[in-house]
Amino acid sequence: QVQLVESGGGLVQxxxxxxxxxxASGFTFSSYAMSWYRQAPGKERELVAGxxxxxxxxxxxxxxxxxxxxxxxNAKNTVYxxxxxxxxxxxxxxxxxxxxxxxxxxxxxTQVTVSS
Length: 116
Fold this sequence. Notes:
Blueprint: E1 3-7, E2 10-13, E3 18-25, E4 33-39, E5 46-51, E6 58-60, E7 68-73, E8 78-83, E9 92-99, E10 104-106, E11 110-115
Parallel strand pairs: 2-11
Antiparallel strand pairs: 1-3, 3-8, 4-5, 4-9, 5-6, 7-8, 9-10, 9-11
């Protein structure tokens, strides 16, 4: 059974940091590109950061460049999102996603709330 379980969300003041984790099971983690998306109330889900399976390529939304870092540990089947210098506009539910040529899997999401 495929599972993606996010954790690490919470309430933080503007300027603070959080590290999100997404633990994967039920598929060959190292064969999948991993990414983080977020969805704020009333808005569409958007890509925040992506990390390709061979570890050499990453991409970030312009709004988070220089503040967020995505990294993965294939030995632990886990992908992380380090979020620094958080802003109120970063408030959203954050989802991790696993992607291959043949299928996609989503986690259930974790809430991040940044107070001003």
